[in-house]
Amino acid sequence: MNVNEIREKSRSVIGPYCKSCPVCNGKACSNKIPGPGSKGTGTVAIKNYEAWQKIEVKMDTLAENKEIDTTFEMFGKTFKYPIFAGPVGAVSQHYSDLYNDNMFNEIYVRACAKSGIAAFTGDGLNEEIMMHATHAIKENSGIGVPTIKPWDKDTCFKKLDLANESNAFAIAMDIDAAGLPFLQGRIPPAGRKSVEELKEIIDYAHVPFIVKGIMSVEGAQKAVDAGAKAIVVSNHGGRVLDGTPATACVLEEIADQFKGQVKIIVDGGIRSGLDVFKALALGADAVIIARPFVNMIYGGKDEGVEAYVQQLGQELENTMMMTGVSSLREISKKNIYK
């Protein structure tokens, strides 16, 4: 099956919030919470997608006809493409009960590793989610990134113990999850972290730490000060704060200041290999894509993930070929119109 066929198949088994749209642009799911939609007006996810579409690439085929190299290295691991699958949680609540988080992550981690990329796994109230996710990562030679919510210190450390035992090549925290309803009002308090609190968490990890949810130069500096080795420019898909800009609109400023100091990853509305190219041109080292992978698993399990990764890779390779670049390091602002 190809990606379109898999997406069509997912439509019959996925729940009421996600519509398995031909293009996952945030419009049909709008502000439906819980679910894949955005918070408040429901416009942030739409802005994320549309911002990438406004960027155009410069075609240039007067270049040496060398083999295209899409490989990407991070923290000692080499991946087939500069693409990660993003953390997804509460799938039975947000999508349908065809899968629970444990079943979903098992497929997610395995299929992504087989396809030459790595999955960020989700987290939740149920302790078994992190236990099963880290087990799946360990079973796949550490090719995965356990992603921890900003819980209280003791809970973070318990989850970090599991992450450390998984042999994961990196660990992440989606710090912007502070805006999710199920984290608010918890005792002990969960949510925002000071630089000092985040540093204590990062120091407890045995591998490079990724801080997800950075939307400003100031926020990036705080993450760097806390010891982060990578940041993810992300507004949590628009699900935590209405009125935020699209990630594509803040990426360049952040990358201009921090490129080379930390790995810079971006998510939010990236749906094609062409979008991946645009993100790299703005200064990202890699991207994260999440929601479309849900449709691929619901519609085709491992085959769905592998088909989507292959399509993304082919689109990226074709864009590179038609813009005169042969490796990721050659991609820059000169390859796009803004």
Automatic annotation (TrEMBL):
Residues annotated to bind glyoxylate: 239
Catalytic activity from the UniProt record: (S)-lactate + O2 = pyruvate + H2O2
Signal sequence interval, chain numbering: none
A Pfam family this chain is assigned to: FMN_dh
MF GO annotations: FMN binding; oxidoreductase activity
Occurrences of domain FMN hydroxy acid dehydrogenase (ranges): 1-338
Known cofactor(s): FMN
Residues at which FMN binds: 212, 234, 236, 267-271
Xref: InterPro entries: Aldolase_TIM, Alpha-hydoxy_acid_DH_FMN, FMN-dep_DH, FMN_HAD
Family per record: Belongs to the FMN-dependent alpha-hydroxy acid dehydrogenase family.
Listed name of the protein: L-lactate oxidase
Organism: Faecalibacillus intestinalis
